[in-house]
Amino acid sequence: MEIVVSSLSRAAAFDGEQQGIGNWQVAYYKSSIGHDPLRYYTGYPKDLGPSRVIHFTSEREFVQLLHEGHPVVVAFTLRCNLTKHLDGVLEEAAAEFYPHVKFMRVECPKYPGFCITRQRKEYPFMEIFHSPQQGRVADANITKYSVKVLPFNYDTSAYGFREFFKRHGIQSSSPQ
């Protein structure tokens, strides 16, 4: 039995006994877009390797991280289903920008003192800490650090971080 379908933009024929409707639809879709959509990588799931996101444990650890001189993206979050997307974005961005930018996640219910100092009431939110001028020596025993804090208000994706770093002049990769 042979059926010709002419109402579609491209006429297609199929043998109803050898191919099912599903196979015919896939074949028609492939022919209409010009390639097999299953051959191309869609981005999910990505193998990012070990996690590069640092989990906040103390303010001392945070200060030591700032003293390393790399920009630090801090995500102030709550542990809930709504932040699962943010966790994935942080993992992807941390893998892409490692080791030039560090990513840290703070669970605010565990560390309320650190989160309250940021004076924000809505969660999750992100801030980027970076030092444009690293460690000026004021005295032989004292080194002054100036840390600039920028609220992150761009697209929450690796692309959004890249554009944010570019706009604010934050080095996110090796100089060429």
Structural overview:
The chain is globular and about 75 Å long. Strands 3-5-4-6-9 form a 5-stranded mixed β-sheet, with helices on one face. Strands 1-2 form a two-stranded antiparallel sheet. It folds into 2 domains: 2-39, no CATH class; 53-167, Glutaredoxin, CATH 3.40.30.10. With 176 residues, the chain is α/β, with parallel strands linked by helices. The chain has helices at residues 21-33, 59-67, 84-97, 112-116, 158-167, and strands spanning 2-5, 12-15, 53-55, 72-77, 102-107, 125-130, 136-137, 143-144, 148-151. It has 5 helices and 9 strands. A hairpin with a 6-residue loop joins strand 1 and strand 2 (12-15).
Roughly what fraction of the amino acids lie in strands? 15-25%
CATH class of the largest domain: Alpha Beta
Strand count, sense and barrel status of the largest sheet are: 5 strands, mixed
Strand order of the largest sheet: 3-5-4-6-9
> What is CATH's topology name of the largest domain?
Glutaredoxin
Tally the helices: what do you get? 5
In the CATH hierarchy, the architecture of the largest domain is: 3-Layer(aba) Sandwich
Query: What oligomeric state best describes the polypeptide chains here?
Result: single chain
Mean pLDDT: 75
The secondary-structure class comes to: alpha/beta
InterPro entries: Thioredoxin-like_sf
Protein name: Thioredoxin superfamily protein
Organism: Pyrus ussuriensis x Pyrus communis
